[in-house]
Amino acid sequence: MIILTAVLIALAGFIAVQVLGVLYGIVLPPLPPVPESIREISHESEAHGVDRWEYSAPGDACAVVSFYETNGGSCQMAASQCGHEGSDQVEYPADAVCSGQVPFSIFNMRWSVTIFPDTAVSSLLDVRREVYWIGTGPAAAPQFDLGQLSPSSNATTAP
Fold first, then answer.
1. Nearest CA to 138 among 93, 104, 99?
2. DSSP symbol at 142
3. What count of other Cβ atoms lies within 10 Å of the Cβ of residue 5?
4. Residue 49 has what DSSP assignment?
């Protein structure tokens, strides 16, 4: 009888830990990675776990791309950005697009960042997050055409 009680208590504890992890993930889903020393310009929340932020980040686009690649992101860059050679000399509005995903509890969060040039010493970041509450989401992260992207019209830069 004592062994059965101990097993039931251990089982109840295991289930409680699993449930608490799920509840914590629902209440506080993870945020996408962002570099230090950024300044938030705007935040929009379409639904719980579906968000868009705009930031101003110190450093050029190459430093920001390096941060995202170091933090598990996959980045696409415009031709000739950050030492990448290319024959396409078109001026794109975006320097790069990075994306990644973070599994947590029983959920999955995907993020993407579009990096726009601001000045020689700063960049504008359009950061998006979507939490997939059921399943892992689409099979592959979206691929972006850098020529089709532009920062939102309500973004302003610091003087």
1. 99
2. P
3. 9
4. T
- Both structure tokens of 125: 């970041």
For residues 26 and 47, the answer to whether their CB atoms sit within 8 Å is no
Local confidence pLDDT in tens for the 159 residues of the chain: 899 898 989 988 888 888 888 888 888 899 999 998 899 999 999 999 999 999 999 888 888 889 999 999 998 887 666 765 543 433 456 788 999 999 988 899 999 999 988 877 788 999 999 999 987 676 655 555 555 555 554 444 333
Determine the Cα angle at 133 with ends 132 and 136, to 5°: 45
